[in-house]
C-alpha cells in the first residue's frame, strides 16, 4: 500500500490523484466514515453473538431481534434522499454521530438480565440512523469531489476505505473480546459473561466519539439540489434555444418556397 501511494505521487497519470486529499472536507468525510464503520459492523456482530451465547437465542430469533434495523434503514434512506439538498449536511452528520454515540452507550450498559426493549431496541434504531445518514453524506461529497470522468475512482476510494476499516475494526474488537474474556476486569456492574461484549461496545463508543469530534471541522452545506436545479435550468434553456432556431429555419424555408412559387415580375 505504501508503494502504491509513492507510485501515484510520482507517476504523471496516477490512478488515484493524491491532490484530492488536500480537500479538507473529502479527508474529514472519509475519516468520519472510517471511524463509524470501525464501530458499526463489529458492533452488530457482537450484538448478535451476545444474543446467541448469553441470551441463548436461535438463529431465527436473532434475525427477528435484528429486524428493526432493516426497517429503520429503509425509512432513514428515504428521508435522507429528501433532506440532503435542503438541510445542512454538517448538521446531518452531527445528528448521525450523536446517534452512533448514544446507540453504543446504551448497549454498553446492557447486562445479562436487562430487557431487549430497554437497551437493544432503541440502540438499533439509533445505530441505523447514524450509519445511513453518515454514509449518504460522505458518499455524496466523495462522489461530487471528482470530475465525472473520475467518479469511478472516487467510488473505489470510498468502498476501499469502508472495507479496510471494517476489517481493522474486527481485528481490534476481536483482540479486546479475547483479552477481557480471559481476564474480566470491568466494574462489578457487569457480570463476567457480559464483560467481553461490553468491552467491544466501549471500543465502539470511543470510535464514535472520535468521529464526533471531527464534525465541527466540516464546512459542508447542502448537496445535490442546487446543482440539479442549475443543470435542469440549463438544459431547459438550451432546449428553448434549439426550438427557436428550428422555428426560424422553418420560417426561412417557407418564405423561400413562397418566393419560388410567385411569378417573376418584369
| Total number of strands | 0
Q: Helical region count?
A: 8
Roughly what fraction of the amino acids lie in strands?
under 5%
The largest sheet, given as strand count, sense and whether it forms a barrel, is: none
CATH architecture of the largest domain: Up-down Bundle
Helix content: over 70%
Distance between the termini: 88 Å
pLDDT averaged residue by residue: 81
Order of helices and strands: HHHHHHHH
Low-confidence parts, pLDDT < 50 over ≥5 residues? 227-237, 261-266
Number of spatially distinct domains: 2
Give the CATH class of the largest domain: Mainly Alpha
CATH topology of the largest domain: Growth Hormone, Chain: A
Radius of gyration: 28 Å
Class based on secondary structure composition and strand pairing? mainly alpha
CATH superfamily of the largest domain: MFS general substrate transporter like domains
Outline: globular
Explain the layout of strands and helices.
Elements: H1 2-10, H2 24-53, H3 59-83, H4 89-108, H5 120-144, H6 151-182, H7 195-214, H8 225-261
Helix pairs in contact: 2-4, 2-5, 2-6, 2-7, 3-5, 4-5, 4-7, 5-6, 6-7
Entry keywords:
266 residues; 0% strand; mainly alpha; single chain; Growth Hormone, Chain: A; globular; disordered C terminus; 74% helix; 2 domains
Report what the structure shows.
With 266 residues, this protein is mainly α. The longest helix has 37 residues, at 225-261. Helix 2 (24-53) runs parallel beside helix 4 (89-108), helix 2 packs across helix 6 (151-182) and helix 2 (24-53) packs antiparallel against helix 7. It has eight helices and no strands. It is globular and about 85 Å long. It has helices spanning 2-10, 24-53, 59-83, 89-108, 120-144, 151-182, 195-214, 225-261. It has two domains: 21-223, Growth Hormone, Chain: A (Up-down Bundle); 224-261. The model is unreliable at 227-237 and 261-266 (pLDDT under 50). InterPro entries: MFS (IPR011701), MFS_trans_sf (IPR036259). This is Major facilitator superfamily (MFS) profile domain-containing protein. Its main location: membrane. Pfam families: MFS_1. It is found in: Membrane.
Amino acid at each position: 500500500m505504501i508503494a502504491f501511494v509513492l507510485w501515484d505521487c510520482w507517476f504523471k497519470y496516477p490512478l488515484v490523484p493524491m491532490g484530492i486529499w488536500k480537500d479538507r472536507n473529502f479527508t474529514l468525510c472519509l475519516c468520519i466514515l472510517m471511524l463509524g464503520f470501525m464501530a458499526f459492523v463489529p458492533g452488530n456482530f457482537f450484538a448478535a453473538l451476545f444474543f446467541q451465547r448469553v441470551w441463548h437465542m436461535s438463529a431465527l430469533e436473532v434475525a427477528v431481534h435484528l429486524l428493526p434495523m432493516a426497517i429503520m434503514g429503509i425509512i432513514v434512506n428515504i428521508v435522507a434522499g429528501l433532506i440532503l439538498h435542503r438541510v445542512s449536511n454538517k448538521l446531518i452528520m452531527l445528528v448521525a454521530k450523536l446517534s452512533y454515540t448514544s446507540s453504543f452507550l446504551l448497549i454498553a450498559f446492557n447486562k445479562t438480565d436487562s430487557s431487549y426493549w430497554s437497551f437493544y431496541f432503541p440502540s438499533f434504531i439509533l445505530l441505523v440512523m447514524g450509519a445511513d445518514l453518515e454514509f449518504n453524506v460522505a458518499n455524496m461529497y466523495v462522489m461530487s469531489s471528482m470530475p465525472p470522468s473520475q467518479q469511478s475512482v472516487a467510488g473505489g476510494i470510498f468502498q476501499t476505505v469502508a472495507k479496510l476499516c471494517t476489517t481493522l475494526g474486527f481485528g481490534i474488537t476481536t483482540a479486546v473480546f479475547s483479552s477481557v474474556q480471559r481476564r474480566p476486569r470491568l466494574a462489578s456492574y457487569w457480570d463476567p459473561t457480559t464483560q467481553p461484549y461490553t468491552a467491544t461496545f466501549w471500543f465502539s463508543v470511543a470510535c464514535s466519539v472520535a468521529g464526533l469530534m471531527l464534525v465541527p471541522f466540516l464546512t459542508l452545506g447542502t448537496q445535490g439540489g442546487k446543482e440539479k436545479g442549475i443543470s435542469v435550468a440549463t438544459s431547459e434553456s438550451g432546449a428553448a434555444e434549439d426550438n427557436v432556431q428550428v422555428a426560424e429555419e422553418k420560417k426561412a424555408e417557407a418564405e423561400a418556397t413562397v418566393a419560388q412559387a410567385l411569378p417573376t415580375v418584369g
